[in-house]
Write a structure and sequence with these properties.
Methane Monooxygenase Hydroxylase, Chain G, domain 1; two-stranded parallel ribbon; 13 helices
């Protein structure tokens, strides 16, 4: 059934013991390529026959003769060597994690960004190998996470909205941090809440270890950093009062709703905005997944500013709305 078109997202691994060729090979391999959820971000093919030549021919037939250089992975060992070379380059720029803080000009900061970005690219490829283990690399996992945290700190320092400004004041404003390389669907708020249940029931020694683990995950995840303050507040003010571990998710949802409502009202009051118009902007932003236009932001103002004032107010309000959405959605 799988070879004749049955399409199942739950199919994770295909064991091949047939001499597949051409469209049959492509169709069989493709049975595993549908993502199911955070537990299945790709499929696996386990071959009991040497189908390399057949695979190369099939790819060439249905794309072009050079496509295999892009589609097919190189041996694991080559990526290990490549990663170690990138690591040496990084050390030549920043010998230690702490030395990132000492980068005092834009040129050296740019070197660090480019060097670590290359490391992330190779690391993401290595993650796809079942053989991957940190002991094969010169760089260790904690060191990678520490550098990644500095990388994200620099992104926040430069400003994620810098590219929207018309007047360039820094060479770093044009740098693409490629945060999609860091983002992982497997690590999200639900995952953190599961860790909080473990943290809540641990003894004091284990609690400290779990808290450090949670902090490392949040600091190293681009999508969670904006929620760090919320999660820390929930831990400090709510977590230990919850009697039923199974209700942590529901308690967090209630906590989030209260914090979101409070933050929304504060935003509207501080900037003198029309709450209904702001809600429309937020809803559209969430639906379209694109930043609001300046004309949309102007409609949220309860007053009509002068032209020079408008040039300052509208970008400021836009930035606050984007941060609000990043934090609560």
């Amino acid at each position: 059934m799988f070879l004749t078109g049955f399409d199942s997202k739950s199919l994770n691994t295909l064991y091949v013991d047939k001499n597949l060729r051409y469209h049959g090979l492509i169709q069989a391999y493709s049975r595993t390529n549908r993502i199911l959820n955070e537990l299945k971000s790709q499929g696996n093919i386990v071959c009991f026959r040497n189908l390399k030549k057949n695979t190369d021919e099939a790819i060439a037939l249905f794309s072009n003769p050079d496509a295999k250089e892009v589609i097919l992975m190189k041996p694991y060992e080559e990526y290990v060597v490549n990663f170690d070379a990138k690591y040496e380059t990084l050390l030549s720029v920043v010998p230690t994690v702490e030395s990132v803080n000492e980068l005092n000009n834009e040129d050296t900061k740019l070197e660090f960004i480019k060097a670590f970005r290359e490391i992330i690219r190779v690391k993401n490829i290595l993650d796809g190998f079942s053989d991957f283990k940190w002991s094969d690399l010169k760089m260790q996992n904690q060191e990678f996470e520490d550098y990644k945290s500095k990388y994200l700190d620099m992104y926040e320092e430069i400003g994620g909205n810098a590219g929207d400004r018309k007047e360039k004041v820094s060479i770093l404003e044009d740098v693409d941090f490629e945060l999609e390389l860091i983002h992982k669907d497997e690590i999200n708020v639900s995952y953190i809440l599961k860790l909080l249940a473990i943290y809540k029931n641990a003894d004091e020694k284990e609690k400290q270890k779990q808290k450090e683990n949670i902090n490392n995950i949040i600091n190293g995840n681009a999508s969670l950093r904006s929620k760090r303050e919320l999660i820390e507040k929930f831990i400090n003010e709510n977590l230990m009062q919850i009697s039923d571990d199974n209700s942590i998710d529901d308690e967090f949802d209630e906590f989030l709703d209260v914090e979101k409502t409070t933050a929304f009202k504060k935003l509207c009051e501080e900037e003198n905005l029309n709450c209904e118009e702001v809600q429309k902007v937020v809803d559209t932003y969430l639906y379209d997944e694109r930043k609001p236009l300046t004309s949309d932001i102007a409609k949220t103002l309860n007053f009509k500013p002068k032209l020079l004032e408008r040039k300052k107010i509208v970008p400021r309000v836009l930035e606050k709305i984007v941060k609000f959405v990043d934090k609560f959605f």
